[in-house]
Amino acid sequence: VFKNFAKRIEEVKNKLKELRSETDQTAKSSEKMKSAFSSFKSTLASLGIMMGVTQLVQFAKSAVETASSIAEIQNVLDTVFRVKINGVLHDSAEDVSRWANECSSAFGLTTLSAKRFASTFGAMLSASDVDFDYIDEMSMKLTQLAGDLGSFYNISTEEAFTKLQSGLSGMVQPLRELGISMTVANLEAFALSRGINVAWNEMSQADQQILRYNYIMQQTAMT
Description:
With 223 residues, the protein is mainly α. Helix content is 74%, strand content 4%. A two-stranded antiparallel ribbon has the order 1-2. Helix 3 packs antiparallel against helix 4. The radius of gyration is 29 Å and the shape is globular. The termini are far apart. The relative contact order is 0.07.
């Protein structure tokens, strides 16, 4: 009996040690967290920014989400602009990424928006079988145009991007609101003015997409 009792006492002691150790670790973590928040608040205060604990948590969460978005968009950009065709690697991802990092602000865009817009345009052009050698330049120019249209028409760059995306998809109304009428008749007339005497329905999907692109660029040349 005494042996069993002593054994139980020893077990209780061990459990208490484990609990004390966990409590110490929790306390240390809590102190580290307090210290981190205090240090962070001091840094923000030096910049004239005051935040409470709740605000700091929200700020940190937002920062993590933004970092995640950046990583996701970069992954999409790499996928769109780095492809292997017939065993040959075509890679312009680094050029497009550098362009977005260095030039986006000049068009009223954030780097994240520039990468997202360019990747979306690139994916659309690629899906239409446009020659890969043209996709990066076309995507960057369309992205720049989204910034220019936003500024010229006093609309958000997101709205301008959506209208351009719709236009490339063959939708007439969104760009018509900006005075750009992309009817088949207008596109055929534009093609004819460039020496292309081919009916719209006889063009390949890639040719139609390139014609839309050039028509949009011509119609917005004054913006």
